Please model this.
Amino acid sequence: MPVSTWTPVGRWTGTVTHDGEVDDYTVTFASDGSLSVTTEKSTGTGSWSVTGEAELEFSLRENFNADIAQISPNGHRAAYIRIDFTARPDGDTLTGEGRAVVHGADDSVIYGTDATTAVHRLP
Model:
């Protein structure tokens, strides 16, 4: 099987769609396999790896900003989200799907949802 030389290293911006909502975000993929994410409501860190032929898997923990009262669709106050995505590149665009699991301040799981993403590489 050929080894992919594709890499996501760099800064990307786009959207994640879940539960009928669309949220903007920016993600930076570092060459050491780490990543950082920022949104209007949160910041997060995680890791990434290229799998298969130019397929990207990334996972992160996204913490809601202290000044944001983020309420889950089932009415609980959310503290952070664990997110796992699989994405595929097409030029300078990544599209993919994954799962987001929302946690309360006590680490309890309060909600899970499927999500899709589309981002493009920034110059």
Q: What stands out?
A: The longest strand covers residues 109-121.
